[in-house]
Design goal:
The protein is 48% helix and 12% strand. It has 271 residues and is of the alpha+beta class. The chain has a single domain, classed as L-fuculose-1-phosphate Aldolase. Helix 2 runs parallel beside helix 7 and helix 3 packs across helix 6. The N terminus is likely disordered.
């Protein structure tokens, strides 16, 4: 018994003291390693957003470069569910690809570059035609949080009206730097901006958080529409509740990311 207690004591001691020391000795990631991880997550994020129904054949997601914050990574013009590492392009904030290799970038890449220019805190940008949000962009009913996972929507979610920035004869697309800048201005310091008759643009301080924002913006929009349809009073999250939830999202994002990843990869293998 005494010997067993000694062994258990040794295990506890190693757990408490050896593990933290090993963690401290782990070398910091280089900017190149960080970018490699971001590119891997970017490919996966495309598949997750498609699997979760946020994007279909259209829509795009980008992530800022850790090595060069004035550059960002984004797929070539391709359906998100089909994106591979070979599709990822590096583009500067003047919207010029670093090495196109004959690949065509998304027409609406200006959404990404113009937001990155004015929001140094933003590390990832997602633009989608998320179907649940469309009604809130064409009506005077505001998109507000009713789901606890959408506490980030507690701030006013603005609606970008392209007629105000591009006239009455646009095709609804952000096809110029001027329109991209106007959209970034409407987003301001917020997390989500709706685009009338088009969809939304969502940002995050990491690619995983941006994906969480995009998925729960869509989910909250559907739930809010259902709640309004019931005809009674709708109770929304208040600022205190939303703030506490928002503080947790960054810490807990790994948990939903893990299952989203498993589901997306599993469904891709079944096709």
């Amino acid at each position: 018994m005494t010997r067993l207690l000694c062994v258990l004591s040794a295990i506890v001691t190693m757990t408490l003291f050896a593990a933290p020391a090993a963690a401290q000795d782990a070398p910091a990631k280089t900017a190149e390693q960080e970018d490699a991880e971001r590119i891997s997550d970017l490919v996966l994020a495309n598949h997750i957003l498609a699997d979760q129904g946020v994007v279909d054949g259209f829509g795009h997601i980008s992530v800022r470069s850790a090595k060069n914050p004035s550059h960002y990574f984004i797929s070539r013009s391709r359906a998100p569910a089909l994106v591979t590492v070979d599709d990822i392009m590096e583009i500067d904030l003047d919207d010029q690809p670093i090495n196109a290799r004959g690949r065509t970038s998304y027409l609406e890449r200006f959404i990404h570059s113009e937001i990155y220019k004015v929001r140094p805190d933003v590390q990832s940008v997602i633009h989608s035609h998320s179907p649940g949000v469309i009604p809130f962009g064409v009506s005077d009913v505001p998109l507000k949080p009713i789901s606890h996972m959408a506490g980030f929507l507690v701030r006013e979610v603005p609606v970008f009206e392209i007629r105000e920035a591009g006239g009455n004869e646009s095709d609804m697309l952000i096809r110029s730097k001027a329109l991209g800048a106007a959209l970034a201005k409407k987003l301001g310091t917020g997390t989500v901006v709706l685009m009338r008759g088009h969809g939304d643009t969502v940002v995050g301080n990491s690619i995983k958080t941006a994906v969480l924002h995009a998925i729960y913006t869509e989910a909250n929009a559907r739930l809010e529409a259902q709640a309004i349809g019931l005809g009674g009073k709708v109770v929304y999250l208040n600022e205190v509740e939303a703030a506490k939830i928002g503080d947790q999202n960054d810490k807990l994002v790994e948990r939903p990311w893990e299952i989203w990843k498993i589901q997306a990869l599993s469904h891709a293998q079944q096709k």
